[in-house]
Write a structure and sequence with these properties.
The chain has 331 residues and is an alpha/beta fold. Helices cover 28% and strands 22% of the residues.
């Protein structure tokens, strides 16, 4: 990895932005109609870098709490110091990614060059189907049946299997992943897992609450199971062995790209497959995660597609594939 630039006379500005969604988005924990993000700008007086973080209610984060954390940081930090000054979460993510962007602007290099990683010009990503009735999810899937990879939000109730079967019928050629967002019980898992396999489901994401996922060590895994809420940083990896086959890396969980790169490397060394995910956010929040996508097994970076509109100079998507972040956007 590159040497870390330290900026002494740095100014940090942060604020909340609200981005309306194209339509309500529902998961097992609730429904949202807007994305509330915190945007950080760091400048050395000549160059400026930006980063975006999403306060996660699941972890008791709010825009106010994230802004307070950012406000606690004074001038003269670099990414290495930041890892020790702030805990994992949206505040550190926004600041860390802003520092990466600033380094790219100062050096004239792209962020993936600074990170010394290769990056594919185009990668295949999921499109997420919001939790709803089987008929509504089938209708949503039919509208995007041409896309190669769909992710279905499930709710842990008796309609889950019917939802999957309805979507499979509506989009017979699409590859399918499912995300339970911690909503299942062990009995529910046992009742549906073999039938999900028959419907070609490739991955089950976080079926059980993070504090109750030990039961995965006793269950059959005909489909790989992916840790989301159960995995934030490299420190979590040892506890995931024998429970999960894959992990979901999100920068709002790792606290930025710096830790996410370490987590990806550590997960690979430990034998886990990788899903690269995001919160519902703009292209600015997705751009840093794009660096991790070239070697991932699954990519779930469609958060900006759920918005009514995205930022200027946004990441481009076409036929289920996403391009590179423009230099004017980030990195």
């Amino acid at each position: 990895m590159n040497s870390v630039i330290s900026v002494v006379n740095m100014q940090i500005n942060a604020g909340e932005e609200i981005w309306p969604l194209d339509k309500p988005f529902r998961i097992s924990r609730g429904t949202r109609t807007e994305a509330r993000v915190v945007v950080v700008a760091v400048t050395d007086g000549q160059h400026s870098g930006r980063g975006e973080g999403v306060p996660i209610k699941r972890y008791n984060q709010t825009p106010a709490s994230v802004l307070a954390e950012i406000g606690s940081i004074k001038d003269g930090l670099n990414r290495e110091q930041l890892q020790k000054l702030l805990p994992t979460g949206a505040a550190r993510n926004a600041l860390d990614c802003a520092l990466w962007d600033l380094e790219a602007k100062i050096s004239g290099k792209r962020a993936w060059e600074l990170a010394d990683i290769s990056i594919a010009p185009e990668v295949e990503t999921t499109f997420t189907i919001s939790l709803d009735t089987p008929a509504a999810m089938a209708s949503a899937a039919k509208a995007v049946a041409n896309l190669p990879l769909l992710k279905l939000k499930l709710g842990g109730d008796g309609a889950d299997l019917t939802r999957v079967e309805a979507v499979r019928a509506a989009a017979p050629k699409a590859r399918l992943l499912v995300d339970a967002n911690e909503s299942w019980t062990p009995n529910h898992y046992r009742n549906v897992v073999s039938l999900l396999a028959e419907n070609g489901i490739e991955l089950i994401e976080q079926p059980f609450p993070a504090n109750a996922d030990g039961v995965l060590e006793t269950l059959d895994h005909p489909i790989p199971v992916c840790a989301d809420e159960s995995c934030h940083t490299t420190a979590d990896l040892p506890g995931l062995t024998n429970r999960y086959e894959a992990i979901n890396i999100k920068l709002d969980k790792t606290g930025g790209l710096t830790e996410a790169l370490l987590l990806a490397r550590g997960a690979r060394q430990a034998g886990f497959k990788l899903l690269i995910g995001c919160m519902v956010c703009t292209s600015l929040g997705i751009a840093p995660a794009r660096l991790l996508a070239s070697t991932a097994d699954w990519i779930d970076l469609d958060g900006s597609l759920l918005l009514g509109r995205d930022r200027d100079h946004c990441i481009r998507y076409r036929n289920g594939k996403m391009g590179l972040p423009p230099r004017k956007l980030w990195g």
